[in-house]
Amino acid sequence: MRNLILATLLFASTYQTAVGEQTGDWKYTTENNRATITKYTALGKAVTIPGSLNGNTVTSIGNMAFYECTNLSSVTIPCGVTVISHNAFTKCTNLTSITIPNSVTSIEDHAFSNCTSLTNIIVDGSNPNYSSDASGVLFNKNKSTIFQYPSGKRGPYTIPISVTIIGSGAFTECTKLSSITIPNGVTSIGDWAFSTCTSLTNITIPQSVTSIGHRAFPGCTSLSSMTIPTRVKSIQERTFASCTSLTNVTIPLSVTSIESGAFSGCTKLTSINIPDSVTLTGDAAFTGCTSLTKIIIPNSVTKIGENAFYDCSSLNTITIPGSVKSVGNLAFFGCYNLTNAVILSGVKSIGERAFEGCISLSSVTIPDSMNSIGVSAFQNCTSLTSITIPPGTSIQGEMPKHIKVIRK
Question: What is the set of domains in the chain, with CATH numbers?
């Protein structure tokens, strides 16, 4: 009987921790007499987080605990809190200021993202891990890493010369930031660092930078030009996606890969020079670059990813070098001004629907190295009347009836 009671109590404790508890306006979970706030349920404006809940010391503000608390204008965090979790205060659009006590040891990425009225982050001077400057910007203790620029601040900003790392999401959704000065000495720009900084027209990245994270600049709709530093090796996933004013990009020889979606939706980009060092153009790398009229793919590239040039509707000619072994599915789908495609010896496969919808395409050169042409590769290529195929090339599915297949 005693064992049954103990088992029942253990089950109840586990269940209670798993589903959480609520005291007043606060939902929370507990472990070892420590509480993590999981949700603030009221509509308060000036809120003081309790130091304890039902005898449990509050030590953590959980993921999305104050998410979209749009009435919240100020919050007091008690000494004793050690962790402010990922997205803890995201979209608190009326929050203007927040003070970090000396007990906080961890502030996770995007904790204050899209707080569009936030102008001041104040860190207790005795905090051993974090600090802030006179502008209300959040750093690590020695100001070598910038963690959060308040989203509500407007005008220009100069990053201190002590900074070597721009943290993940540091300037995300800073739509009022008009210009940024990055000092020589910065080596890393983190993921999402300048995402949706819609007022930035120009950014000079110093040559000291060796890495730029994925989605570092997407949605910077006023950004018109970009020069990649000569020590950067990869343009990461969606780094410049939807930079709709971007007309000029300089890519150095240090870059070996252009990853998925890197320039997707850059609708004003008219041309781009891919250096001979690049071996990969990833999936959807240039999707929706509707003003792109010319691109030279160098002999170093070994793969053109799926959707790589999807809907590049101004592209009029393309030469695929023999170094490329495969052309991905839908690679040139919807390039309706493309008139000529030269595929050089060495290319082994063309993916499914690779040139579908290229209604102006009238000439395609297929090399003897070609092993296979995917299903619907030339579907709706209404200007293409014939195509010459090597004897060893297999055609998946059927070629459109209006295209005459000539075997060598």
Answer: 12-115 (3.80.10.10), 256-408 (3.80.10.10)
Non-local CB neighbours of 352 within 8 Å, separated by 6+ positions = 329, 330, 374, 375, 376, 377, 396
Backbone angles phi, psi at 19, to 5 degrees: -90, -15
Q: Which of 353, 408, 362 is nearest to 383 (CA)?
A: 362
For residue 157, what are the contacts with CB-CB under 8 A and spacing of at least 6? Answer: 135, 137, 149, 177, 179, 180, 181
Bridge partners of 98, per DSSP, are 75, 121
Banded model confidence at residue 13, pLDDT cuts 50, 70, 90 = very low
d(CA 347, CA 342) in angstroms, rounded, equals 11
Helix or strand run (H / E) with residue 27: strand 26-31
- Beginning with the edge strand found earlier in the chain, give each strand of the sheet holding 130-132 in spatial order: 130-132, 138-140, 145-148, 165-166, 188-189, 211-212
Kind and range of the H or E element at 9? helix 2-19
User: Structure pTM?
Assistant: 0.89
Strand, helix or coil for residue 270: coil
Share of the chain above pLDDT 70, in %: 95
Q: Which residues on neighbouring strands pair with residue 372, listed in sequence order?
A: 349, 394
Asked if 266 and 239 count as a contact pair (C-beta separation under 8 A), the reply is: no
Question: Checking phi first, is residue 22 left (phi over 0); if not, alpha (psi -120 to 50) or beta?
Answer: beta
CA–CA separation, 396 and 27 (whole Å): 58
